[in-house]
């Protein structure tokens, strides 16, 4: 992984981390009720789960790229279609924060970490995100353990920055996140990014 691809990958993970989803709404709810500091272990649990999905995607993609190029192409197209579908779901999703706000808060760091881990791990579609994006930033034919380690570290830093930024902003700007029109604009903006990424990916040779 080059410096340029590493920076690009970091920015992509950062954007992915702040797009609306179950994890983001859980962070929002926790920050609104308990403040930003209470979200650290929750965010870390989500991030560790994503890192495991990333490593699994790296290993699986490397094997497919080496032995089954045509299958890899099909997976890349499927990943692009999934990104477009995810963008459409974000664009059209109704605003509903009631579930996240009703979730019980964990007092202990370990329990909060486990809660965050399960929130992310219960959504196996996360691995499709990494399957779709990794070929853009890594040469899968030359994928090494060091590249995977760097990608995992960038994922850790990028997701934690994104999630904790949401927690800080949510704790300081409650009215913004309680506005239905504001959250709807955020959903549509994130959805547009996902659709554009899917179109870009499927158009690559």
Could you characterize the architecture of this molecule?
With 205 residues, this protein is mostly helical. It has one domain. Helix content is 82%, strand content 0%. Helix 2 packs across helix 8 and helix 3 runs parallel beside helix 6. About 5% of the residues have low confidence. It is a multi-pass membrane protein. GO terms for molecular function: amino acid transmembrane transporter activity. This is Threonine transporter. It is found in: Cell membrane.
Which oligomeric form is depicted? single chain
Query: Could you give the order of the helices and strands?
Result: HHHHHHHHHH
DSSP E strands, number? 0
- The portion of residues assigned to helices is over 70%
Anisotropy-based shape: globular
Question: Structural class, from helix and strand content?
Answer: mainly alpha
Taken as a percent bin, the fraction of beta residues is under 5%
Structural Rg: 17 Å
Largest pleated sheet: none
- Average pLDDT: 74
Q: Domains counted in the coordinates: how many?
A: 1
Please give the count of helices: 10
Give the N-terminus to C-terminus distance in angstroms.
Answer: 20 Å
Contiguous uncertain segments of 5+ residues: 97-106
Organism: Pseudomonas abyssi
Subcellular location: Cell membrane
Keywords: Cell membrane, Membrane, Transmembrane, Transmembrane helix
Membrane topology: Multi-pass membrane protein
